[in-house]
Please model this.
Amino acid sequence: MSLLPVEEAQARLFALADRLPVETVPIAQAVGRWLVQDIAALRDQPWADLSAMDGYAVRATEMPGPWRVTAESAAGTGFQPTLAPGEASRIFTGAPLPPGADAILIQENATRDGDRLTASADPLTPGRHVRPTASDFAQNAILLDAGSRLGPAQIALAVLGGHGTVPVTRRPRIAILSTGNELVPPGAPTPAGLLPSSNAPMLAALLAALPCDVIDFGIVPDDLDAMVAALGRARSADIIVSTGGASVGDHDLVRPAFVQAGGTLDFWKIRMRPGKPLMAGRLGNALFLGLPGNPVSAFVTATLFLLPLARHISGARDPLPLTSDAMLASALPQTGDRDDYLRAWRAPDGIVSVTSQDSAATAAMAKADCLILRPAGSPPATPGTRVTILPL
Ligand SMILES: Nc1nc2c(c(=O)[nH]1)N[C@H]1C(S)=C(S)[C@@H](COP(=O)(O)OP(=O)(O)OC[C@H]3O[C@@H](n4cnc5c(N)ncnc54)[C@H](O)[C@@H]3O)O[C@H]1N2
Ligand code: MOO
Model:
């Protein structure tokens, strides 16, 4: 198989994947999830012309008074009686204006003596300190499109639009398998030749940013039958992600095990560095991603494939990571025949690539807060060059 460009591999991965079933959940459970339908406002916001300040509702043309204070309007009190000429109404923030009033005299600018009210400052224009009916949104307006993510602001909007529940997909279940005879669980002793398995905790940490349920299937030895059995146990998940054993060595058994378990491989080997040996396919209803074992390669491929896939099956409109344009503060060498995803950090004067770009260099990776995207065949770059970055 020839090396597949990253964008093509992402598109093929998405094409393999159906959106998960839809459920309607209380809005508090929808945080971070994606709407599967447009949602429209069930009410006007504000429901009436409301005061934005504490003070007095008046006719602006009657400035500076005097007025007779004849009524009071507080939030939650409903419609108010009409104000006759020369009358004012005591009013509080969020309360409806009485018909006839068109501006709010804030109480700091008012002098009140019993029922008698006068204004002590500047002219008022009609509409001053008034939030007109439906000025935020009108009933039936589309508030949020299908595929929008429900962050805190979108939750506020949906609730004010009258929604207590929203339609989203169910949370994906994501199974993680770590392969390698050398691996031991985090914190376990590492006598000669053994290595703490960092990939599963790293993937779980990445996935913690998404609404999903992670199931860690532990460490699987480099043994075909053990790997086939582990894939069998994991196949009820929506996504199975393995790390290690993805390359071409004698102990790299993930691909044959996947096929023996009944999986259909869609692609293997991507034109990227790190991450070349990535593979993807389907195993029954589960989507399968075989990530390389090197911790940096696993991290970068998870960022570019696993998280986007989880977002895609969850109904995200924009499942791919956002990129932006930035200026280099350090020089970069030319790239080879694969796209480079260089670990880097955003210094005050521009982007600086971390010292080691080795795909096993975790200390350098931990200093990075972005990736620099450098297409295959890019010439050397000097400080000041504009580059594409992917914030981490
Ligand atoms: N002859 C070739 N050799 C290699 C090629 C190639 O094209 N031809 N590709 C290289 C590239 S690129 C990568 S990336 C690695 C990926 O290999 P595997 O996916 O088969 O990974 P392993 O060999 O199992 O492990 C690589 C490395 O990572 C360590 N590892 C594995 N799992 C974990 C874990 N859970 N936590 C921490 N560290 C882990 C493992 O001990 C190895 O050191 O292949 C190159 N070889
Ligand atoms: O492609 Mo590998 O992930 O460079 O080390």
Remarks:
- The mean pLDDT is 96.
- The chain has four domains: 6-20+170-313, 22-45+141-169, 50-131, 324-391.
- The domain at 22-45+141-169 is CATH 3.90.105.10 (Molybdopterin biosynthesis moea protein, domain 2).
